[in-house]
Amino acid sequence: MIYRKKYLAVFFIAPAFLFLLVFVCYPFLMNIYNSFFEINVLGAPIGKWNHFENYRMLFKDPNMITSIKNTFLLMALVIIFQGGIALLLALLVDYIRRGAQLYRVIFFFPMVISAAALGLIFNLLYLYPDGPLNVIMTSLGFDPIIWKGEGNAFAAIAIPTIWSNVGFYFVIYVMGINNIPTDVMEAAQIDGAVGLKKTRYLTIPLLYNVLTTTFILMITGALRVFDMAWILLPNGQPGGSTYLTGTYMYQMTFINRNVDYGATIAVFIVILGILLSQLTNKIFKPKDY
Fold this sequence. Notes:
Blueprint (H helix, E strand, L loop, with lengths): L5 H29 L18 H5 L4 H34 L4 H9 L6 H11 L6 H8 L13 H26 L3 H9 L5 H11 L1 H16 L3 H6 L12 H11 L3 H25 L6
Helix pairs in contact: 1-13, 3-7, 3-10, 3-12, 4-7, 5-7, 10-13, 12-13
């Protein structure tokens, strides 16, 4: 049997393992190494030892503090609204008898469009004063809004970011609901658990492990937000108020050419993602049913 021939398993696993070593592990380890030295140009030789100065600077840099606050705020909004809307849509589709497949395609559709393309679309929607959103506002009797101006800029990033990934989590929740054993559902219905009672006492509790997994995905996903935010409001506009950890890392590395500090921010993002994922697993421990 194939299971007794261990070398076959090694033969097929080795290429993927080698790929991870070369393109994931090695760059990350080099990133850690680079964060301790002065590097002023991307691809330049490593300079002198910086005496942990980059790591000291992380929590003194006002832009970095702003990016951390914005990232945590986006993380909270993503969990509440992205996860909440996706779960609500999945539960509603579960009650639909006809056309459920059509709704699944419609809700998943934003995932087909790249984040860069969505960013360009929302740039057009946000145009002042003649963009589509402002045309609707003025037709309703309201004044046009500077969507990317002071006070509205973070919302201009958060709204498309949340909307773009609702379909991904919607599909996960739908699959989780479909994997609930039918005999359990039938027994619950016989006992009178229908409608909202079914959702509250059966569906959501049995989705506990799926919800835990999606929480972790949302947390790590918020840490990785870059392309849409950068296209909508590059350089942390206006006035550095919309920096996220990912966009600020890009700004430092590729725009300001402060490569060693950019590497430090990248290490911080990875460590933060690991810590938050582990914390989520500790708080929401998987359950056996």
